[in-house]
Write a structure and sequence with these properties.
Layout (H helix, E strand, L loop, with lengths): L12 H8 L9 H21 L6 H8 L3 H7 L3 H25 L5 H15 L3 H14 L3 H25 L5 H17 L1 H4 L12 H14 L3
Helix pairs in contact: 2-3, 2-5, 3-4, 5-8, 6-8, 6-11, 7-8, 8-9, 9-11
Length: 223
């Protein structure tokens, strides 16, 4: 059966990256590709409004305004849909980060700082706060979600470690790995206070900026 990746050569570059994450969904035409992306966008909306427990293929179909049978054709199970959705948003992050780094002067500390700032600002948004709160909560009861989140964070840590090495190459690999994990924990922990509706205390308005300064201090500290 043809898959999304069969048509990559025929797609414009901006959409080829999106299609690549959908390998396995039987959408070998442009119309099919667009329909799959529509389903994934609807999945995001349903997760935000109904949470993981309320996410169903039928509700996603209603939100996407396509037939339930079409959603089932591309994503036979809820797990398959969630896996592709998480790959989809992860691919979007990688694309945005690459654009950011490509437009940044070739200064390791500046590149690192902009990378950190990007994720801090992403974690201020309601959509990111809600979606990842739902997925993290479910990951403690659902091994599939746990494994999928783990793969996302392995990739995230890998990029963070590479940027840390550019900033501070004398730090041993093992310690650099710990620093990368610590920095990510700080960034994601900020959602407790500045994510979405949690941003309600004026005294914490500058928390993101303070976190950025502390993260730079960690990155540049001697081994």
């Amino acid at each position: 059966m043809p898959t999304v990746t069969d048509d990559l050569d025929q797609l414009e570059p901006a959409t080829a990256g999106e299609a690549a994450v959908l390998a396995g969904a039987p959408a070998s035409t442009r119309k099919g590709r667009d329909r799959v992306l529509k389903v994934l966008d609807a999945t995001k909306a349903v997760l935000i409004s109904h949470g993981y427990a309320g996410l169903t293929l039928r509700l996603v179909a209603e939100r996407a305004d396509i037939a339930h049978s079409n959603v089932q054709y591309y994503f036979p199970t809820k797990d398959r849909l969630v896996e592709s959705f998480m790959m989809y948003i992860s691919s979007g992050y990688r694309r945005d980060v690459q654009i950011l780094l490509d437009s940044t002067p070739n200064d390791p500390l500046e590149r690192f700082t902009r990378y950190v700032r990007y994720y801090i600002n992403e974690n201020r948004t309601l959509s990111v706060t809600v979606i990842f709160a739902e997925l993290r909560a479910m990951s403690q009861r659902n091994d599939f979600i746990l494994d999928t989140l783990d793969r996302m964070y392995i990739s995230y840590r890998g990029r963070m470690e590479a940027l840390l090495e550019d900033v501070n190459p004398t730090v041993p690999a093992a310690k650099r790995a710990l620093r990368a994990a610590l920095i990510i924990a700080i960034i994601d922990g900020l959602m407790i206070f500045i994510g979405g509706k949690n941003a309600r205390h004026a005294a914490l308005a500058e928390l993101g900026e303070e976190a950025e300064r502390e993260i730079v201090r960690i990155a540049t500290a001697p081994a």
